[in-house]
Write a structure and sequence with these properties.
Blueprint lengths: L1 H35 L8 E2 L1 H28 L5 H17 L6 E2 L2
Antiparallel strand pairs: 1-2
Helix pairs in contact: 1-2, 1-3, 2-3
């Protein structure tokens, strides 16, 4: 009985962390778009705040992806990796492609 409750709790952590990872991927993308969006030929200038939001998004993304893998491992759910591995792959790619790591004008 106690083992079943533990497995359900781990499954809930796994599910929530997976949704948080997907949301963090979206947040990193939106931060990138917001940082690089300029109208009518204005120069793109990235603020320190946008760099900070990027790193916060990456931290949330890393913690949530790691939490999905740890919860799946503790639960013994091998088939869950068919979902978690692609999410982790997309997370790494989005962290690289949508990086906002330096404040100042974009050249």
């Amino acid at each position: 009985m106690e083992s079943n409750n533990r497995r359900q709790g781990l499954a809930a952590v796994e599910l929530i962390a997976s949704f948080v990872a997907i949301g963090a991927i979206g947040a990193v993308f939106l931060n990138y778009v917001g940082a690089h969006l300029a109208f009518f030929g204005e120069e793109v200038v990235i603020d320190d705040e946008e760099v900070r939001y990027y790193w916060i998004g990456i931290a949330v993304l890393c913690v949530s992806v790691i939490a999905t893998f740890v919860a799946a491992a503790l639960r013994g759910a091998k088939r869950a990796y068919f979902w978690h591995l692609p999410v982790a792959f997309v997370a790494v790619i989005s962290a690289i492609l949508f990086a906002v790591t330096k404040a100042g004008p974009v050249r």
